[in-house]
Amino acid sequence: MKVLVFSTQILPTPPPYYGGAELVAFTDALWLARRGHDVILVATKHSKASAFYLMGFEPPFKVVEYGEPGTVDNKKLEEEAWESLEDKDYDIIIDHSWNKPTYKSKLPVLGVVHGLNPQPPFWRPRDKPCLLGVSKFHAVYLANYWLVNVAHLPNHIVTEPYLRYSVVDEKEDMLVFLGRVDPGKGIMYFIQLCAQVPKYRCVIIGDDSLLVNHDYVRKVYEVAMRLPNVDWLGMQPFDAKVDYIRRARAVFVYPVPPYAEVFGLWALEAFLMGTPVITSPYGAMPEYVVSGYNGFIIHPEDFNQLPKLMERLPTLKLATPSELRLYALRNFGEEVIAPELEKLMSYCKNEGW
């Protein structure tokens, strides 16, 4: 099929630092191109350079670059990017953008939604919207939010850059927070835990650039810096980020209501690097975090038990780093996800849902 993959106009696709939607959009384009589809990716400027930096090779598909990255209020920019395309002769469109400008198209559109509070579903190709969540929880949430049918495809990332780094069996007494510095991600829970486990080095690697409240980030920073075992690293390039993840005892993100994780690419990254996770039960976390195997799901009412768990963590019989990587590859790798994506594309194109 001739496939147009429409990414966001916020960050390069793939992002050199962070950005879940952009990384998944690039992964879709790459996997479909490898499977023989004629793929065109619409993304911001510098996406081809970013792909070469992250992947080490030129993308095997056409990339149409439009607009400088960094625009949060990007509805107009996404509309202009869509209108600028001269050739709109596609079999199907996979739209990862936030505002979904492709709703104007009469072609089948697979609208992939990222996030808990999405834009209204204006796009209705052939009056049959093909909406896609990134977990079972997310699909059910969106279906009830919009009162329409929503399918799901687990979130996924291209694994090559992670596999360039070996997993390590000897972990350090280090705990990594990986995500936006946001109350919904449980950053204050992380700092509270760090205060109670002083032997652990606590590293904060957070997206503190475009989508956060800077006053809140400053206040959290002031609290965190009172603890001698906390290192606030902020934005880190890919190689530095994965090196911290693979050496850590655990990666920590703790969704707190009303926020809920719709998938959690941070956990998939941790598994690929052979590291377990610590999280809460809110959202899609129980779909892929098996407590006692690849991490721990701790309810907030039991959070006070976590310091004792951290003390025992080096001796607990969790999956080995190699087993964690294999878990990620078997459940979320190209051989599993790409055929499911093709099925959804075909069904959307021919039937809708």
Could you tell me the mean pLDDT?
91
The structural class is alpha/beta
| Range of strand content | 15-25%
Number of structural units classed as domains: 2
Q: What is the fold-level CATH name, i.e. the topology of the largest domain?
A: Rossmann fold
Order of helices and strands: EHEHEHEEEHEHEHEHEHEHEHEHHH
CATH class of the largest domain equals Alpha Beta
CATH superfamily of the largest domain: Glycogen Phosphorylase B
Sheet with most strands: strand arrangement: 3-2-1-4-5-6-7
Q: What low-confidence regions span 5 or more consecutive residues with pLDDT below 50?
A: none
> What is the CATH architecture annotation of the largest domain?
3-Layer(aba) Sandwich
- Give the radius of gyration: 20 Å
Straight-line distance between termini: 20 Å
Indicate the percent of residues in helices: 25-40%
Largest beta-sheet characterization? 7 strands, parallel
